[in-house]
Design a protein that fits this description.
The chain is mainly beta. The chain has one helix and six strands, in the order E-E-H-E-E-E-E.
């Protein structure tokens, strides 16, 4: 599958969490940028996709596609995608059709805009 350039309208930054403990033993989370900003397509899930997601108790609101990244982030990290004025929590990362061309993300838009949640 190839990504049409006209669909790649959003500039986005992939963020990964670094979790550690503070001096009092409380967990803390810092976010760091993964690689360079990239062009992505962001589409709301269709009604059929939302119905299927409800069957699995998920809350994804959008699907994001971008050029495949040869070094995908580890699954132990929480991941977020930041675009102009919008923040998405990433729940699933898929190498679409396992062709190493397109990475598809299932995401939930965060209305509060914070990166801590």
């Amino acid at each position: 599958m190839k990504l049409p350039a006209d669909n790649m309208r959003h500039r986005a930054i992939l963020l990964a969490s670094d979790e550690a403990g503070d001096p009092y033993g409380q967990p803390t989370r810092a976010w760091r940028q993964q690689g360079q900003p990239r062009w992505v397509s962001i589409e709301p899930l269709r009604a059929h996709d939302i119905f299927a997601a409800d069957q699995n108790q998920t809350t994804e609101t959008h699907v994001v596609r971008m050029a495949w990244t040869p070094t995908p982030p580890t699954t132990q990290q929480r991941l977020q995608l930041l675009t102009t004025g919008r923040l998405f929590e990433i729940s699933r990362v898929t190498d679409l059709k396992e062709e190493h061309r397109v990475t598809e993300l299932l995401v939930t838009e965060r209305a509060d805009g914070t990166t801590d949640g």
